[in-house]
Structures are given as C-alpha cells and as structure tokens.
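Task: sequence design from structure.
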C-alpha cells in the first residue's frame, strides 16, 4: 500500500533526481579537473532531491485531491451526506477511492433492489386490497339497486336484502379494522403490555366464544392438556394473544372438514410454553407454506372468501407474536390438516 501512495511516489522521484544530480555534479567536477571537493556531489544531490520531493509531493497531492474530491462530492451529494472528506497522502489514494466507490455502488444496487421489491409489494397490496373491497361493494350495490327497482315494496325481500347488505358492510368494516391494526403493528405504534396471566383462562374463554361457530360448521373443539396444574402462568398481552388464538381457531374452522375437529394443545418447553392449534381440515400445499403469513395470501381463495375472511388474520398473528419476541410456525399435510405452533414466555 505504501509503495503506491503519493508520498512514496514523491520520495522515489526525489531520490532518483537526487542521484542523477549527484552523478552529474561529480562528472562535471571531474571533467573540469576539480578535485578535493568530494562533498559537493552528495550535498547537491540531496538538496535537489529534497526540493524535487517537496514540489512533486505538493503538486501531486493537489492534483489528486482536486480530482478525487469531485468524485467524493458526487457520492456525498447522491447519498445526501455532508460529512467531511479526509484524504491521507501517505495511503494509496486510488485504492481508497476505488473501495469507497465500490461500496457506494453496492449500496446503490441494494437500494434500487429494495425499491423495486417495495414497488412490487405496493402494487400487489393495492391490487389485493382493491380485489377484497370490490366483492362486498358490488354486492351492496346490487342489493340497493334491487330495492330501488321495486324490492322495497315487498317487506320480505327488502328485509332480506338489507340484512345481506349489512353483512357486506360488516365485512368491509372488519377488513379496514384489520388493515388499521396491521399498519400500526408494522409502524411499531401498537402498544403491547407484557404482564403475567393464566394461559388456561384465555384458552377456555376463546374456545367457548367460538363454540357456536364450530357447531354451525360441524367441527368439534378440543383442549388437550400437556402440563399438569390448574394454572399455566405466562407473560404477554392477554388481549392481543386472545386475538392470536381467535384468528388461528377461526381459520381452522373455516378450512376444516365437516365432522372434523380442532385441537388446542399446550406443552412445557423449558422456560416457555408451546401452544399448538391443530385441525383435520383441507391442509396446505408445501408450495404455499412459506407464504401463509403474507397479507392477503389465501391458500384456498374461493373457500376463504366465501367464509368472509379479510386475508389479514395470519399476518396479524405473526406481527403480534413477533412483538412478544416469539415466532410462529406451521406444518401441514395437504388433504389431512395443519398445525400452527408458537411459544409464550413463562411468567
């Protein structure tokens, strides 16, 4: 590195010029028959070499700095940085500039790649959102037009159509509410209060609240005991974890087979409690498993839309558990059922 620096180039040039000067001075003295002044060639060579070193070092440094600073100013301007540029003439400036330019170029490539991915995600998100809103809006529009074209005169028809319109409004409201929740989560604006609570309480309460829905779908809900004790104390935000359990159990009911069952299990996992929600439903294809937690991603589009889901449930579940410092995983056999697993910290 030192052999390529402006300083080393100036030293080498000064030494070369000094040696040539010393040799030329010696030859001149010898040719003129001057003897007894052997000290003069080294002194002259040293002086001229030193002056040459200073001049070359100064001019080369000014030239390189002037050119290099233009490059750095361009990089800093594009990066939006106002940091001071420090160049050490004892280092290999060309190599230093090359490293910095390559680093900047790599960061630009990464930024462009990220922007492209974000733009693709934005386009998919807007497309999915428009598709999700289109169905209930068209349904409401159809019901209202039917009523306006004479359906209001028949009490039986107008009540039935108004109930259907109300159901679609409720679906849109649920979608917008889920969007608001997941936006707050992704922005880090959702408050999570980690306090000890009894896991068994919220398991029983959640399953009891969904019992009627399960019966309508001819699905049996089961709670399998994996830890002895009347209380299982864990640490977390109970209301948010109720939302996690509700989404997972509702999904298992919506995708379940008639006459099947959903089983909620809990096990001891050292300093955590492992919770599983397993069903005997339609299952998930292996190709779909990596994407089940994406917003609006649906394994069975026709079936889940018929069930009225927003397509955001599993994405919300993932964000809630990540805000607790936990993760969720899924394993599934297509045609046989799926099992969602997550852990909670023991209190």
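Answer:
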């Amino acid at each position: 590195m030192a052999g390529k620096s402006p300083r080393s180039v100036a030293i080498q040039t000064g030494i070369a010029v000094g040696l040539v000067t010393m040799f030329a001075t010696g030859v001149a003295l010898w040719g003129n028959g001057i003897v007894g002044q052997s000290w003069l060639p080294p002194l002259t060579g040293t002086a001229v070499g030193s002056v040459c070193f200073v001049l070359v070092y100064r001019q080369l440094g000014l030239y390189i700095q002037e050119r290099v600073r233009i490059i750095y100013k361009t990089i800093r301007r594009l990066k939006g940085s106002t940091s001071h540029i420090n160049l050490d003439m004892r280092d290999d400036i060309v190599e230093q500039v090359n490293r910095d330019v390559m680093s900047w170029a790599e960061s630009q490539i990464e930024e462009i790649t990220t922007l492209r991915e974000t733009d693709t995600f934005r386009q998919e998100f807007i497309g999915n959102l428009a598709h999700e809103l289109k169905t209930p809006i068209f349904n409401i529009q159809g019901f209202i037009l039917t009523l306006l074209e004479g359906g209001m005169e028949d009490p039986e028809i107008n009540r039935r159509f108004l109930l259907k319109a109300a159901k679609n409004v409720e679906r849109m409201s649920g979608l917008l509410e889920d969007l608001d929740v997941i936006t707050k989560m992704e922005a880090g604006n959702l408050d999570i209060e980690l306090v000890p609570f009894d896991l068994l309480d919220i398991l029983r309460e959640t399953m009891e609240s969904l019992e009627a829905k399960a019966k309508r779908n001819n699905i049996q809900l089961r709670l399998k005991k994996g830890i002895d004790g009347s209380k299982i104390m864990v640490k977390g935000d109970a209301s948010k974890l109720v939302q996690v359990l509700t989404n997972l159990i509702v999904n298992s009911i919506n995708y379940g087979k008639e006459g099947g069952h959903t089983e909620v299990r809990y096990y001891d996992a050292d300093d955590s409690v492992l919770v599983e929600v397993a069903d005997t439903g339609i299952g998930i294809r292996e190709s779909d498993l990596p994407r089940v937690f994406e917003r609006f991603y649906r394994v069975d589009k026709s079936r889940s839309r018929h069930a009225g889901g927003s397509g955001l449930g599993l994405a919300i579940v993932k964000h809630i558990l990540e805000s607790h410092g936990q993760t969720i995983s899924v394993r599934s056999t297509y045609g046989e059922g799926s099992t969602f697993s997550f852990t909670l910290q023991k209190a």
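The domain at 195-346 is CATH 3.30.565.10 (Heat Shock Protein 90).
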